[in-house]
Each structure stands twice: as C-alpha cells, then as structure tokens.
Amino acid sequence: MSNEFRGTGNIGQAPTLRTVKVHGEDRSVVDLRVYFDRRIPMKDGSYEDDGGFWLTVSVWGSRADNAFKLLTKGMRIEVIGPLRLESWEHDNEVRTEFRLTADKITIDPICLDSVTLRKRSATADESDGLPEDHRVPETA
Fold it and tell me: Tell me, what's the pLDDT at 120?
C-alpha cells in the first residue's frame, strides 16, 4: 500500500468512543490523538526529542471497543495503517487534517505492569491442525 504509515508515539489524551452509521449499520470508532516523536539517543543513555507531530488515529469495529477499554493517555503505541486527508467546514472555513485508520496497534510493554488474556473461543481456535507440541496450552 503506497500510503501506509508506521509510527511509534504516545497517546496524548483519553481515547474517545463514538458510533457512526455505515451503510445503515452502527459501527464503533475510537479516536486517539498520538504524538509521534523522533527520539535521538544521547551518549549518556537518555533520549532527546528531535521534533515530532500530532496525528489523529481512528480504530474501527470490535478493535475500537477493545482499544477504548485498554488504551489510556500516556501509553506508548505503534500504529500501522493508511493515511487519508479529511476536509470539513467550520465557521465558514475549510479545514483539513491527515488522519490514520489503524489496521494494527501494538502497545509498547514499557508501559505495562501486567497482561490478562481472555480465553479463545472454540470457533476461533487457531491451533487446529498444529502438532500437539506447537499448541498454546489452555490456562485455568
């Protein structure tokens, strides 16, 4: 994809959840404001910010519901997805903004204390057909 963006940054404000109609169906959308920085490593082991930019990241569907529950202000994330230019009118003035639709979001483990996984549903068992020693064990 020629307009795919991949970047790492920090969520700058609490995610917002909204519902929009798409082809007559209600769909969840979460919007994130993310600051994508350019961190330069220094000799003393610290980092210096060498400029960056803000971008609105949208997450759709069931991923939106999960993103709203799990993502918080300050988290460091990596996002991958297409960029698009949106235009709208406000106070008789046309405004434009680049937005990213996230196909994938990865949370940087540096900001986590723990992780709890939900049980996989029987219909979505990806271990079918794998040898027994390659299957993920069920947890109680």
Answer: 76
Task: For residues 3 and 123, give the distance between their C-alpha atoms in angstroms, rounded to a whole number.
Answer: 34
Nearest residue to 20 via CA among 10, 30, 12: 30
The per-residue pLDDT for 110 is 81
Report the 10 Å Cβ neighbour count for 60: 16
Tell if the pTM clears 0.90, that is, is over it.
Answer: no
Pairwise CA distance, residues 71 & 75, whole Å: 7
Q: Which of 71, 39, 43, 42 is nearest to 57 (CA)?
A: 71
- DSSP for 16-68, please give it: EEEEEEETTEEEEEEEEEEEEEEEEE-TTS-EEEEEEEEEEEEEETHHHHHHH
Interatomic CA distance for residues 101 and 45, integer angstroms: 34
